[in-house]
Amino acid sequence: MAEQTTLDSLLEMGFDRNRAERAVAHTGNQGIERAMDWLMEHEGDPDIDEPYVPPVGNVLGGSDPQLPSPAAQPTAEGADPATDGGDQMINDGDTKQPMTEEEKREQIKRLEDLMRVKQEERRERERAEEVDREKQRRRQGQELLQVKQKLQEDEMKKMVDLRQREKNDDKMAKQRVRDKIARDREERALKFGGGSSSRAVTSPSAEGPPSSPPSQGPPPAKKDYNECRIQVRMLDGSALTSVFKAQEPLAAVRVYIQMNGDAPEGQDFTLLSPYPRRVYTELDMEKPLQELGLVPSAVLVVAKK
After folding, report:
1. Confidence (pLDDT) at 1
2. What is the 3-state secondary structure (H, E, C) of the chain?
3. CA 232, CA 220: separation in Å to the nearest integer?
4. How far apart are CA 103 and CA 108, in angstroms?
5. What pLDDT shows up at residue 189?
6. CA-CA distance, 146 to 144, in Å (whole number)?
7. Closest alpha carbon to 269 in 292, 253, 248
8. N or C: which end of the chain has fewer CB within 10 A?
9. Can you tell me the mean pLDDT for 57-74?
């Protein structure tokens, strides 16, 4: 009757009959404490509340056919009858007497205290497991954040390198334009410097006879100018003046303004003639100054696009 006694004890403690029968069967009827441990460990099983069907030949409350009957078990002469800590029955010779109500209450109280201890241990274990899981989640989150930051840093580095290369290329292009303008100026100085100075020095001689007034004759032929004097009016009212070859494109004037003017770097602008008013387009930038009618001199105005 030990199995049935363990089952009754579990029922008196408030456990469901179906769960109590499962606990007794799965622990092999090894006592109330083992059954309680099994119940607390398998409380969350999905089939814990399914109807329990005991195996064939094993009926709760019946005797185990593999165990000898109490009459066949030898007892030492003079020895006290053996008692089970989880049983609620007391052996008195060949007769089992039920426990008194007070003994039952004491045993139930002791088992309830034991169950509370087991439940507290289980809660502590679950809390520790939850703390470990939270630590693992945080560690994974930190690793993911570090990977994202590394990717962002690599992307920023690539962008900085690209901008630096673009700046270097732009700087080299501007330097090539400056070098070209400097070479053109040197060529103009070598080609026209002597002629200009000789014209500036030549003057009517005081010792020579006075020149006679020019005689009436055919009008002089139109002079073929090789240079063009351009005055540029900037946005702030200042003016830039420079001499260009007549065959140079209008783009050379724009480059000169970009390098010598006070316009912010990267600001786009266009050029126009005030009178007669004409706004020069991108196609005009490739045309020579002579073709655009800017020779021998002209005034251009810088305007925002």
Report:
1. 44
2. CHHHHHHHHHHHCCCCHHHHHHHHHHCCCCCHHHHHHHHHHCCCCCCCCCCCCCCCCCCCCCCCCCCCCCCCCCCCCCCCCCCCCCCCEEEECCEEEECCHHHHHHHHHHHHHHHHHHHHHHHHHHHHHHHHHHHHHHHHHHHHHHHHHHHHHHHHHHHHHHHHHHHHHHHHHHHHHHHHHHHHHHHHHHHHHHHHHHHHHCCCCCCCCCCCCCCCCCCCCCCCCCEEEEEEECCCCCEEEEEEECCCEHHHHHHHHHHHCCCCCCCCEEEEEECCEEECCCCHHHCECCCCCCCCEEEEEEEEC
3. 31
4. 8
5. 81
6. 5
7. 253
8. C
9. 43
Segment 115-163, tens digit of pLDDT: 788 888 888 988 999 999 999 999 999 999 999 999 999 999 999 999 8
Average pLDDT score over the chain: 76
Q: Dihedral, CA atoms, 179, 181, 186, 190, nearest 10 degrees?
A: 150
Give 169-219 pLDDT, tens digit per residue. 989 999 999 998 988 888 888 877 644 444 444 444 444 455 555 555 555
Paired tokens of 209: 């006879």
pLDDT at position 188: 82
Q: Which amino acid is at 85?
A: G
pLDDT at 42: 81
Give the Cβ contact number of residue 118 at 10 Å.
Answer: 16
- Both structure tokens of 70: 């109490």
Q: Say which residue, 126 or 47, is predicted with more confidence.
A: 126
DSSP lists the bridge partners of residue 243 as: 229
The answer to whether the CB of 87 falls within 8 A of the CB of 4 is no
Q: How far is CA 18 from CA 15, 48, 82, 178, 222, in A?
A: 9, 8, 30, 98, 124
Calpha distance 149→141 (Å, rounded): 12
For residue 188, give the amino acid letter.
R
